[in-house]
Amino acid sequence: MxxxxxxYCPESLLKGKQVEMRLNEDDFWESExxxxxxxxxxxxxxxxxxxxxxxxxxxxxxxxxxLVGLVITQAKQDxxxxxxxxxxxxxxxxxxxxxxxxEIHKSKEEFDAAKFNPNDTVFNEQKQYLSTIPKEDLQKLxxxxxxxxxxxxxxxxxxNDTFHDLHKTLYALKLIFNFKWMAWHKGWKNINDVNxxxxxxxxxxxxxxxxxxxxxxxxxxxxxEQNFKNGTLNKIFDRxxxxxxxxxxxxxx
Length: 253
Hints:
- This protein is an alpha+beta fold.
- 40% of the residues lie in helices and 11% in strands.
- The chain is built from eleven helices and seven strands.
- Strands 1, 2, 3, 4, 5, 6 and 7 form a seven-stranded mixed sheet that branches.
- Helix 8 (203-216) packs antiparallel against helix 10 (232-241).
- The protein is elongated, with a radius of gyration of 22 Å.
- It starts with a strand and ends in a 5-residue tail after the last helix.
């Protein structure tokens, strides 16, 4: 069953309650009950990724008096565009809505704190560490990948010893490291683009892509397998094969 925005709080409607939304001091429509915030760009109504503080305009009208039948979307994740509709991610039903609501932050401060920060010191530290890895160790890692390719990506290939050796070595070399990979939206956009060219990536970039893919598999089973089979990991390891990676490439923010 498709859902639309008729001016009432979508989150409350899931619970069988009809709750009004009013303009707050930031000019967002905010639920009187849940703090859920929305912006309107007809024909779209966008649910923001952080909740409001209940500071309403004193003279504000309610959304249900003027809005009806708007398509509900997720908010864009690009920096500076977080209040605009992501037309590629329409919320069609209550299951989509429930899933998206789980991602909503309690406040703008919490939302900002969870953002990907390209200037985080962790990246400079990782870059310095990566420069100390002997090339022979990287060559051994690439050879493990080549062995896995020869084995093939059939059913249950991730349970064989060759994959386990590759997985263990990635972590042992610390190519998998701690950063806010879930919030690295540009990186995920590239990963999800099967035509993306990794040939200009630095070793730090490759470390970030590997971290995102291998860490994500813990939460979304099949992420690693998918990126083996669609050629993404093949491109990443081809770039690792190039010993010039550390001298002429720039970190992708």
